[in-house]
Specification:
The chain has seven helices and five strands; from the N terminus they run H-E-H-E-H-H-E-H-E-H-E-H. The protein is α/β, with parallel strands linked by helices. It has one domain: 3-Layer(aba) Sandwich (Rossmann fold). Strands 3-2-1-4-5 form a five-stranded parallel β-sheet. The longest helix has 16 residues. The structure holds adenosine-5'-triphosphate and the ligand O=P(O)(O)O[C@@H]1O[C@H]([C@H](O)CO)[C@@H](O)[C@H](O)[C@@H]1O. The site of adenosine-5'-triphosphate (ATP) has 19 residues, from strand 1, helix 2, strand 4 and helix 7. One of its GO terms (biological process) is carbohydrate metabolic process.
Length: 168
């Protein structure tokens, strides 16, 4: 079967760099694991898109997630599934994988105009921010609007499963 249309948003780093000059600007970039997609994520991505004309999401590869120490069983969802869910969102224009522990090399290759993360990050401490500001770009955090996290969702599922097993 042929790929569904939204999967065309998933591109290699090389393909993205090759088309960078043709992207509608300002080009906004964010990155993350996005393991179990939740309302906090989708609201944040919609806000990120509103800061520019094109939104690129850099997604940690499964091997890269394992370097982050989020837990031995993480990621729960494999990289191609995490990328497909992001690509299906209206706010997201391009999805690209990165294999490194941080997105610094990817950002250096793509040279976005705006870098965003969620409000759990202090942008002034991130090397990515210094990089983007170095070519005159902006680096900013978007405030949390919904208190959700993949880790909290997993804890909830596990505690409910534990209660069921113990007969509560
Ligand atoms: N509730 C939220 N509101 C706004 N932004 C969020 C929220 N949760 C995560 N983000 C942002 O989404 C991006 C991806 O986050 P991440 O994959 O770490 O989500 P998470 O649900 O917090 O995961 P984990 O619990 O595994 O750390 C990051 O830039 C993060 O700041
Ligand atoms: O989903 P997360 O945990 O927000 O994503 C991580 O963000 C890191 C951030 O950009 C710098 O601390 C990044 O280095 C890491 O690879 C994940 O993408």
């Amino acid at each position: 079967m042929s790929a569904v249309a939204f999967e065309r948003k998933i591109v290699t780093r090389e393909a993205l760099v090759a088309r960078r000059a043709t992207l509608a600007g300002p080009v906004v970039f964010t990155n993350g694991v996005f393991d179990i997609l939740h309302r906090g994520h989708v609201t944040y991505l919609a806000r990120a898109k509103a800061l520019g004309a094109s939104l690129i999401v850099g997604v940690n590869s499964d091997a890269s997630v394992r370097m982050l120490g989020k837990g031995e069983d993480r990621p729960i969802n494999r990289e191609d599934d995490r990328m497909a869910l992001l690509a299906a969102l209206e706010s997201v224009d391009w999805v690209v994988l990165f294999e490194e522990r941080t997105p610094v090399e990817l950002i250096a290759a793509v040279r976005p105009d705006v870098l965003v993360k969620g409000g759990d990050y202090d942008m002034d401490t991130l090397p990515e921010s210094a990089l983007v500001r170095g070519w005159g770009g902006r680096a900013l955090a978007i405030a949390f609007e919904h208190q959700r996290s993949t880790t909290a969702l997993l804890e909830k599922v596990r505690s409910q499963a534990g209660a069921t097993e113990s007969g509560h």
